[in-house]
Amino acid sequence: MHLPGSVRNLILIGFMGSGKSSVGREIARRCELRFLDTDSMIRQKYGKSIPEIFAAHGEPAFRDEEHQVLLRLRAAQPMVLATGGGIVLQPRNRSVLRSLGAVVWLTANEEVIWERVSRNQNRPLLRTKDPRSTVRDLMETRYPLYRETADITVETSRLTHQEVANRILLAIRNWATSRDEDQN
Ligand code: S3P
User: Fold this and answer.
1) Distance (Å, rounded) from C-alpha 78 to C-alpha 9?
2) d(CA 19, CA 30)
């Protein structure tokens, strides 16, 4: 299986727990593309976990690193890229993401997100007194940014990773066809 010829990279954005890494890996496998993940690239560079990076260097350093990673990826081979949930916060990232390829936003409703993110402790932004309302607040501020950045939106709430991958591949084909027709 291949991505449409006019789509160089497939970029996955979305809130924590939306399934970007698992779905990204699945699509990369099916399309025989490289899979990259901005969080893993940053973890590798620091040799630390994300909570350790936040604790030792602060969120601004992490955000700056996210931007540097994106800039480096402009020269990379075709790939499927999963991004950290906060990547859309910086306007400069939103334009780099769009220039990299087709941007797919994975959405899920708040209950599903909460169910998924409350299972593990590796998200420093959710280490608050009331993580449930932190999720709600962050979703509210970020959803417009994901919406503004994405070419395609796929709702994932009741779907398996395989089903989400199927929907993305179908949507991307339709999107590329209508975009190519518009350009001709
Ligand atoms: C963050 C999401 C995390 C990670 C970091 C900050 C965010 O990635 O980049 O903890 O600001 O939403 P995931 O979306 O993969 O959990």
Assistant:
1) 5
2) 17
Q: What is the chain's pLDDT, residue by residue, as a tens digit (184 residues)?
A: 889 888 999 999 999 999 999 999 999 999 999 999 999 999 999 999 999 999 999 999 999 999 999 999 999 999 999 999 999 999 999 999 999 999 999 999 999 999 999 998 899 999 999 999 999 999 999 999 999 999 999 999 999 999 999 999 999 999 999 888 887 7
3-state secondary structure of 133: helix
Nearest to 10 by CA among 30, 29, 35, 41: 35
How remote is the CA of residue 14 from the centroid of ligand 1, in Å?
9
CA-closest residue to ligand 1 atom 11? 86
* 78 Cβ contact partners less than 8 Å away, ≥ 6 residues apart: 3, 8, 9, 33, 34
Q: Of the residues 13, 39, 90, 149, which should be mutated to test ligand 1's pocket, given the most ligand atoms within 8 Å of the CB?
A: 39
